[in-house]
Amino acid sequence: MFPKTKAMSTRAQKRGKESSSSGDGDAISFCLSWRLAVEANNVVAWPRVPTQCSRYVETYMINGQYDKDLELIVEEILAYVNQTFLLGDAMDAWILDVDDTCISNIYYYKGKKYGCDPYDPFAFRTWAMKGGCPAIPSVLRLFTTLIDKGFKVFLLTGRDEETLGQVTKNNLHNQGFIGYERLILRSAVYKGKSAMKYKSEVRRQLEEEGYRIWGNVGDQWSDIQGDNLGNRTFKLPNPMYFVP
């Protein structure tokens, strides 16, 4: 995980305050528009969820709509997967992000008002060290399908290799993510680089090894932007935080 950028657009902040003061209906309408803009990557560099959207994001995340959105996207991914034909040389690859793609941090963010509190790297690292992140069921189903079909699945995460390497591996294993080709964490070589730059360089290295990247899945735009993206990219919803 990486620190969020320092400022959300002044215009978005102003509109949110105006909506909040106008009544619950206007606030919900603003939050719906805000989340759409966030998922479309039109609102960027936001440091936290607007305060008045805490209840909206909570409802979205835990009352079923988030799970339904994930299921729809995974069905689209699987439709694409079922149209692919592997060459049989064990070089057909898929890339999956880890945090809030394979495993969920929803219990951590519940204590952070679903992203309304500022990002706290120490608190998140403490949470991650517990190794208790649950699998996201629809993505676990996708993962299992990819493995069964014969893809080499690479799990690519911004988590620090030195401090979170083993606990992340154990967490994934305990949640059913077994049989992937490689878990790639941020090593000292990539310290200080943006998520997009870091992940682009890793994908480039994989392609230089001869892998064909058929698909790339993440909950952040920085997971699926940059270079060497592969044949298709898929963005999962996440209105709780932004990773540059």
Structural write-up:
The protein has 244 residues and is an alpha/beta fold. Helix 8 (161-174) links the parallel strand 2 and strand 3 (182-186). The chain has one domain: 3-Layer(aba) Sandwich (Rossmann fold), CATH 3.40.50.1000. The protein has helices spanning 10-22, 24-39, 54-62, 65-81, 106-110, 121-129, 137-149, 161-174, 195-208, and strands at 92-96, 152-160, 182-186, 212-218, 232-235. The N and C termini lie close together (10 Å). The chain has nine helices and five strands. It is globular, with a radius of gyration of 18 Å. It is 45% helix and 12% strand. The chain has a five-stranded parallel sheet, sandwiched between helices. Helix 4 runs parallel beside helix 7. The model is unreliable at 1-10 and 18-22 (pLDDT under 50). InterPro entries: Acid_phosphat_B-like, Acid_phosphatase_pln, APS1/VSP, HAD-like_sf, HAD_sf. One of its GO terms (molecular function) is nutrient reservoir activity. May function as somatic storage protein during early seedling development. Belongs to the APS1/VSP family. Keywords: Glycoprotein, Signal, Storage protein.
Based on the model shown, name its key terms:
244 residues; alpha/beta; Rossmann fold; 45% helix; globular; nutrient reservoir activity
What is the gist of this entry?
With 244 residues, this protein is an alpha/beta fold. The chain is built from nine helices and five strands.
